[in-house]
Amino acid sequence: TVEFTLPGRIERTLRARIEPLSTRAADGTAAVLALHDLTAAKRSEQMRADFIANASHELRTPLSTLIGYIETLSGTASEDAEARQRFLGIMHDQASRMSGLVDDLLSLSRIELHEHSPPGGRVDLATVLKDVADTLALDARAKGMTIALDLPPAAPAVVGDGEELIQVFQNLVDNAIKYGRPNSTVTAKVPRTERGPGPLSKPSTEGVVVVAISDQGAGIAREHLPRLTERFYRVDAARSRELGGTGLGLAIVKHILNHHRGALTIESQAGKGSTFTVYLAATPPAGRGAA
């Protein structure tokens, strides 16, 4: 019995068991080989370890802050109404930050658990993008911004999971609003191409659907681009926390796209903004089955 890992974009762990037959079979078979896919079990073990490590690290600061303010409110500030209101506001922000962290960590864990098994559903991207734009319109208006959708008359459907793809584009558009300049425009364009990067590099009869989310922000220095999808990697940690970021949004995007066998590219120019481009496999027209 031997365990081994198949390398690749999505690693798979297998256990092989080989048993020789006491006598050869009529067709000449001399041994039996059984393969068991352990990927899900191994991922579950790794996720538990990662969750504990990440949660303990990221939750330590807001927990310490909460404890400190609770002690202050119980002591010297117990009779100070103005201080009490200010501290309660800070405590609410820290508790909200912890809640967001836990939600994102759980979401990431769920996605990673099934990352090795791609979804096979059919998703209408136009509907997904319109829902995301409607959901975030209020946040955009608060900064004087608009969300512009540049969709073809008949936007193609893609192979995927609708809820996960909503999460992808909600994270990307939300980031564009947070880091875009006030009174600017966040755009979502949906061109079509025959191929994309990585697993979508081979020509496809159905083609590849491209969704490009662009902001008009300060841009991101080139040296940061390769690390943006790492867990808890922040270009400006203080600003990210101030804007309510958990440092997990782009990691979630990456793992969902891995699950979909899609891809993400990031381009940015200082002073002009950034473009996050998602590539997904298109489906055939309805009635012909999934690609």
Task: Describe the overall structure.
- By secondary structure, this protein is an alpha+beta fold.
- It is 42% helix and 21% strand.
- It is built from six helices and eleven strands.
- Strands 5, 7, 8, 9, 10 and 11 form a six-stranded mixed β-sheet that branches.
- Helix 1 packs antiparallel against helix 2, helix 2 runs parallel beside helix 6 and helix 4 packs antiparallel against helix 6.
- The chain is flat and about 90 Å long.
- The two termini are 37 Å apart.
- The model has no long low-confidence stretch (mean pLDDT 83).
In summary, what is this structure?
The protein has six helices and eleven strands. With 291 residues, it is of the alpha+beta class.
Question: What is the residue-averaged pLDDT?
Answer: 83
Radius of gyration: 24 Å
Class from helix and strand fractions: alpha+beta
Order of helices and strands: EEEHHEHEEHEEEHHEE
